[in-house]
Amino acid sequence: MIHFGRHAARPGQTALALRFQPPQDPADSAAYLALFEVLARHPCPFVLYSDLRGFRLDHAEEVAQNQIARATRAAISRQIRGMVLFSPGPSEKKRAAFSKFWSIPVEVYDDAERAGAAFLALHDRIFAGGGD
Fold first, then answer.
1. Residue 112 included in any domain
2. With contact defined as beta carbons under 8 Å apart, do 55 and 20 qualify?
3. Which end of the chain, N or C, is less packed with Cβ atoms under 10 Å?
4. Do the strands 46-51 and 80-86 form a parallel or antiparallel pair, or are they unpaired?
5. Is 131 left (phi over 0), alpha (psi -120 to 50) or beta?
6. Domain tally, the chain
7. Tell me: the pLDDT tens digits for 50-62?
8. Does the model's pTM come out above 0.85?
9. Domain of 53?
10. Buried b (16+ CB within 10 A) or exposed e, 10-22
């Protein structure tokens, strides 16, 4: 199941969290792809925490993801200020690809505690500890 909303530790609109909870349901891919439009319409700047460990897209869904990401890139880029990815086997290549595509700071971690702490630090650095 895909969960999306305000991050519990920073419940204002500037701290968003995207999480996947196994097992993957057939509707999860569509829900995930629909989130690009939701992010594009978000009413204020934000930092995103993403934990999609175990979530998979098939080839057609990856193509759709790339098309939707390109179509919403400008709108999302106006609002997103940074992203922390919690991912198994993080790599510099993955971090650089996300950072370059969205033109934002991206941090990738394979440890939940470190990822959570990094997200809060990034959010507070960007929003001067406030948020809304």
1. yes
2. yes
3. C
4. parallel
5. left
6. 1
7. 998 889 999 999 9
8. yes
9. 2-126
10. beeebbbbbbbee
